[in-house]
Specification:
The chain is mainly alpha-helical. The chain folds into two domains: 31-151, D-Maltodextrin-Binding Protein, domain 2, CATH 3.40.190; 178-241, no CATH class. It has ten helices and four strands; from the N terminus they run ααβαβαααβαααβα. The strands form two sheets. It has a two-stranded parallel ribbon with strand order 1-2. Strands 3-4 form a two-stranded parallel sheet. It is elongated, with a radius of gyration of 25 Å.
């Protein structure tokens, strides 16, 4: 029994020592991440409680989102349940004209009516200089924020996406049978699909998503070949389907 007790005590001591070592390592990792972030001009808050305390002081949050109204309503409700002390208001924004107006307001220093904004795909690089540089990726990786790191732009560490989109091919079954619809991207380059045989959006969002897989050069070359097929050009998925 004495040997067993000593063994148990030794295990407890070892676990305690290991826990202390992990805590020290985590603290060192957090300090290093903060130092690296600040060296790149980012703001890095090391403690989640500090973020919440500052939010309580401010007391309100204004959000512009590209989400549908139903999604905005659900997200806002969930946020209010977790942080009832914050007066949060979110609204939908859409359309190139709206994105351009938002950008002009930012450039003119007039963007003082919202805290979180949608960064339009078409003007991504133009929006970036006007976003406050919180190292969201670093804080997520260190557990300060409960944000999955993969939702954060790995290059622009202060930009977060709260959704992803799926692109599919829609076709009119009265005009073409399913077995003749291309099942590869390159299939649309076949001669029989030249001359207003399919529709393309002038905003090449689906093609941009191919860059991580194909690389920029191959994707741009493919886009040029698609354009050479003389498609029907449209703007907006809803309009295309109609």
């Amino acid at each position: 029994m004495t040997r067993i007790c000593f063994s148990i005590l030794a295990m407890i001591a070892a676990l305690s020592f290991g826990s202390d070592r992990l805590a020290v390592a985590a603290s060192a990792s957090l300090a290093k991440a903060k130092q690296q972030a600040e060296a790149q001009g980012f703001t890095f808050v090391s403690n989640h409680d500090e973020i919440v305390a500052n939010a309580k002081k401010e007391g309100k949050l204004r959000v512009l989102s590209s989400q549908d109204p139903a999604a905005i309503k659900a997200i806002t409700a969930a946020f209010k349940r977790k942080y009832p002390f914050i007066d949060v208001r979110a609204e939908e924004v859409s359309g190139l004209e709206t994105y351009q107006r938002m950008l002009q307001e930012m450039k003119a220093g007039l963007a003082n009516s919202w805290d979180v904004n949608y960064i339009a795909f078409d003007f991504y690089s133009e929006f970036l200089p006007y976003q406050k540089k919180f190292d969201i990726l670093g804080m997520a990786e260190q557990g300060v924020l409960q944000t999955p790191p993969k939702l954060v732009d790995p290059t622009h560490r202060h930009v977060v996406a709260i959704q992803s989109n799926m692109q599919v091919i829609a076709f009119n079954k009265e005009m073409i049978s399913a077995d003749k619809v291309p099942d590869t991207w390159e299939g649309f380059l076949a001669p029989q699909f030249k001359g207003r045989k399919f529709l393309l959006d002038i905003r090449p969002k689906p093609l941009a998503a191919l860059v991580p897989l194909w690389g920029l050069e191959k994707t741009v070359e493919f886009a040029k070949k698609l354009a050479a097929q003389q498609p029907v050009w449209f703007r907006g998925e809803s309009r295309q389907l109609t």
